[in-house]
Amino acid sequence: MSFANIYDIAGSSMAAQTTRLNTIASNLANVDSAAASAEEAYKSIKPIFEAVYHGTGVDANPAASVAVTNLTTTLDNADMRFEPNHPLADADGYVAYSNVDPIVEVADMMSATQNFEASVNVMNRARSMQQSLLNLGT
Amino acid sequence: MAINFESALGLHAQALDVRVERTKILAANIANAETPGYQARDIDFKSELAAFESGMDVSRNYDMMFRIPAQLAADGNTVEIGQEQARFAQNSMDFETSLTFLNMKISGLRSAIKGE
């Protein structure tokens, strides 16, 4: 009977959601970042989550923690705005802005926050279970 | 009358063990609520305990079952977070209940030993 894994699992989820919140903060901060070309424009960053199983064969642990395996940029194109007087405007008068969609980011942020809180609750609950187990027979 | 601790406490101790293992699985489901392709799993508590009662050697390798989701997600994830949280809460309450029973057993045995 071991509670150690539960803390690892809940902790891995909290870490993953923190990474996600970090990318969201970065995306929202750069929502109005301008660049001279579409290639240079800021692109929204998204973390890729993956379930991680520990052990193999008979010792395989069915409880999977979660890990951020990669950070990718979204494939949407940069937002080209016609601003001929902007110092970064190209020959045709267009400025490349980031492809960040603030609505998507805020929705994502709420989801990440709720998931983080769910894992905090799991951890608290596991702690109180362990506490009462320690008080057994007293 | 000889007191056999194994038979006096056995079932409840086993129940606690299954509860803790189930806590792990449910915690993993909640942790992976947004992992693409993750399939939620669970232990069937009743069948595990029935196996123990029928004298089977129940090791820590409990039978895992995959959850059948009420709604399918586009990314193949089968975790329904509200349901998992409800099961998690229920499971930990059941753990506390088993613990209370175990405590009552122990205090019963203690009074018997002391002859009170």
From TrEMBL, chain A:
Residues 92-136 form the Flagellar basal-body/hook protein C-terminal domain. Coiled coil: none annotated. Residues 9-32 form the Flagellar basal body rod protein N-terminal domain. It is found in: Bacterial flagellum basal body. One of its GO terms (cellular component) is bacterial-type flagellum basal body, rod. The basal body constitutes a major portion of the flagellar organelle and consists of four rings (L,P,S, and M) mounted on a central rod. The rod consists of about 26 subunits of FlgG in the distal portion, and FlgB, FlgC and FlgF are thought to build up the proximal portion of the rod with about 6 subunits each. NCBIfam families: FlgC (TIGR01395). This is Flagellar basal-body rod protein FlgC. It comes from Ferrimonas lipolytica. The gene is flgC.
UniProtKB/TrEMBL annotation, chain B:
Keywords: Bacterial flagellum, Cell projection, Cilium, Flagellum. GO terms for biological process: bacterial-type flagellum-dependent cell motility. It is found in: Bacterial flagellum basal body. GO terms for cellular component: bacterial-type flagellum basal body, rod. InterPro entries: Flag_bb_rod_N, Flagellar_basal_body_rod_CS, FlgB. Transmembrane segments: none annotated. PROSITE patterns: FLAGELLA_BB_ROD. Residues 21-39 form the Flagellar basal body rod protein N-terminal domain. It holds the Pfam family Flg_bb_rod. The keyword Transmembrane helix does not apply. NCBIfam families: FlgB, PRK12685.1. Structural component of flagellum, the bacterial motility apparatus. Part of the rod structure of flagellar basal body. The basal body constitutes a major portion of the flagellar organelle and consists of a number of rings mounted on a central rod. Belongs to the flagella basal body rod proteins family. This is Flagellar basal body rod protein FlgB. It comes from Ferrimonas lipolytica. The gene is flgB.
